[in-house]
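Weekly structure sync, notes
Attendees: PL, DS, HV (note-taker this week)

Item 1: Sulfatase N-terminal domain-containing protein
DS walked through the input record. Source organism listed as marine sediment metagenome. Sequence as pasted into the shared doc:
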Amino acid sequence: MKKNKFPRIIEIARILIISLLFHGCVNDAPSSNFIFFLVDDLGWSDVGCYGSDYYETPNIDRLAEEGMKFTDAYATCCVCSPTRASILTGKYPGRLHIT
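Item 1 (cont.): predicted structure, written out as tokens:
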């Protein structure tokens, strides 16, 4: 017995038409870049953009001037490995059983 291919062709045509319609809805604005530094044992006064006179960090200072810098950060653990695992997975360190 031959299978009717007409419903499948209709489904493919419908998907093609919908994708062509939504192609014009795509925003052509340039996407912004996001740089995230996770540094172990970095104090607030170790970078020039936060007021350090001892360490010279011209590239980080330029990034801070051209972009956004944050003044408050909180971690759920006192060592870096649970924080790194949490950032990579999106889960709390307690759920990952890494402490």
